[in-house]
Design brief:
The structure holds 2 protein chains of 2 kinds. Helix content of chain A is 31%, strand content 33%. Chain A is of the alpha+beta class. The radius of gyration of chain A is 15 Å and the shape is globular.
């Protein structure tokens, strides 16, 4: 984290789906998604991270030990509307694959955009968790998503 | 009873004889008859797989998904330290320096290798390119795809990294890598079908000790494999889940 990051850092309370809250430090700095890499993680059915690949560790800024056992929503950026995650949980809850563009929060307060795909892991007809794979999105898709999420967030704030 | 073995068509041409040596070695190790059948075409091979022709398949990850989930195969081993990665290359004289420089109408030289094509198309998404706004030409081999690039008949070419690395030095000197995947967890594996399921412990034991004797090491060397690593069902399912996320 640079000195400029520290000077420009804002502290924001983030409310999660399960009613918990945390205060996160935010910096308005995008970390570019690396070419050719896939970020891969797995969670248990409750969204607790059970596997993180090296690209996930590198991009999130957390160590593997910090990620394993944490809730996946540790990455949730406050610019992401709750509606996007509601759609995710509704889709995978029905056993379907979910695609979406997500702005993720890094440990250092910066952010990175991904095209995310999440699928339920079914073993012997039983849900054992979820696999999430993230890849590099196009700039046009990021801009479209930013505009959509600002609208959704504004509507959520009014409600 | 004679069992049937086949190998994903994306192995390097230099290793054809290696797979025949492997089949001979495996028959002697297991004391059973196994017939090896090789294909040039992924599609023709996939039809034969679906028809139940094979009992042992050295499969690419895309086919492994179908074999495990639909046909009841089990992965028993994978080559050590050999992840499948994809290279997108351009003509060395091309003006393209990054994927984002590519524009709609981009001409793509590909093959019918399903994993490489899928990963290649995913790596073009950051330029907003997809099958709807590109001109995709499927070639019979990576060498033909490379020639297409060198003749300026294509803007980019998709290659299995191992195949790209085995192109002649002359061909590679006239191409440039635009981007290469670094996925690490997608790889070929050896799968055993239901008719041969009782042989899995013997097959695994034979494969995992193959590098321990001179004869086995020579066969591995001829296949371009250093040794085999075991694969359990959860490792296989994980890879298949990952492949599933990449297929729209």
């Amino acid at each position: 984290m640079s000195e400029q990051d520290i000077e420009e850092m804002a502290h924001v309370a983030i409310s999660y789906f399960d009613g918990t809250q945390r205060t996160a430090a935010l910096v308005d700095r995008e970390v570019p998604y690396p070419d050719g890499k896939l970020i891969v993680s797995r969670t248990d059915p409750q969204g607790i991270i059970t596997h993180a690949n090296q690209a996930f560790i590198d991009m999130s800024g957390y160590s593997e030990a910090e990620l394993i056992g944490a809730k996946h929503c540790i990455l949730r950026h406050p610019d992401m509307p709750a509606a996007a995650f509601q759609d995710l949980w509704d889709t995978i809850g029905q056993g379907n694959k979910w695609h979406g563009y997500v702005k993720n929060l890094r440990k250092d307060g910066a952010y990175y955009w991904v095209k995310a795909t999440v699928i339920p892991n079914i073993r012997n007809s039983r849900l054992v968790g979820y696999t999430s794979v993230r890849r590099k999105p196009s700039r046009r898709k990021i801009e479209e998503s930013e505009a959509l999420y600002q609208t959704l967030l504004a509507a959520e704030c009014k409600a | 009873m004679t069992y049937n073995l086949t190998v994903s068509p994306d192995f390097a041409p230099d290793h054809i004889s290696g797979w025949y040596f492997f089949n001979t070695w495996l028959q002697r190790s297991l004391d059973m008859a196994i017939h090896l059948e090789l294909y040039d075409s992924f599609e023709a091979q996939r039809e034969a797989m679906r028809a139940g022709t094979f009992d042992l398949i050295y499969a690419n990850p895309y086919d492994a998904s179908m074999l495990v989930r639909e046909l009841g195969f089990q992965a028993v081993a994978r080559p050590a330290s050999q992840a499948d990665e994809t290279v997108i290359a351009v003509n060395a004289a091309s003006a393209y320096q990054t994927v984002e420089d590519l524009k709609p109408g981009c001409r793509i030289a590909t093959t019918d290798d399903p994993d490489v094509h899928t990963i290649g198309m995913i790596m073009l998404e950051s330029a907003d390119l997809d099958s709807g706004n590109t001109a995709i030409k499927q070639h019979s081999s990576y060498v033909v795809g490379a020639k297409s690039l060198l003749n300026d008949d294509a803007d980019v070419g998709f290659f299995l990294k191992a195949a790209y690395d085995q192109l002649s030095a002359l061909i590679r000197s006239r191409m440039r890598v635009l981007v290469r995947s670094e996925i690490g967890v997608v790889h070929h594996s050896l799968l055993v079908g239901p008719r041969m399921a009782a042989c899995i412990p013997a097959i695994q034991t034979a494969l995992l000790t193959m590098q321990d004797n001179e004869k086995g090491r020579r066969v591995l060397d001829s296949m371009g494999v250093s040794s085999w690593e075991p694969m359990n069902s959860e490792q296989t399912e994980f890879m298949i889940d990952l492949i599933d996320t990449l297929i729209d």
